[in-house]
Amino acid sequence: MITDEADRVRSALLGAWRLVTWQSVDTAGSVSYPLGEDAVGQLMYTATGHVSAQLVRARMPRFASDDWRRATAEERAAAWPGYFGYFGTFTLDTDADTVIHHIESSWFPNLVGTRQVRHYRFEDGRLVLDADTSWGQVRIIWEKLPRTSRGVP
């Protein structure tokens, strides 16, 4: 049964979000920024129940060739740790204040087929997602992007 609260949260989530910060706290309490303090990214939730998350290290160096298939082993090795992305579907559990990302595919193959549970809250117009991961706790903060008319007939 869908509740008024689930409808409210779902409505608030829908749309595109811009990354504000992604931080990780290890078991010793040390804070790090997996893609740097100035990482960029987008998170999208659609009305059809799909989710896509793309997070990237800012100012990644360009490859020598504009053909990604011609990247050198060194270029590929340097680029891989500068990106984090996946797509799939999402569900809500408003009793637990969680949004669950059901991963269909990802840059990191170990995420495929998993359920990524994110504890959500809305603070000062921002979406805060907290999660416990194998490398510690993460907090990702997003700002809602304004609607655009581009691509709309």
TrEMBL record:
Domain Lipocalin-like, chain residue ranges per copy: 15-131
InterPro entries linked to this entry: Lipocalin-like (IPR024311)
Pfam families according to UniProt: Lipocalin_5 (PF13924)
Name of the molecule in the record: Lipocalin-like domain-containing protein
Top-rank taxon: Bacteria
Organism: Streptomyces cylindrosporus
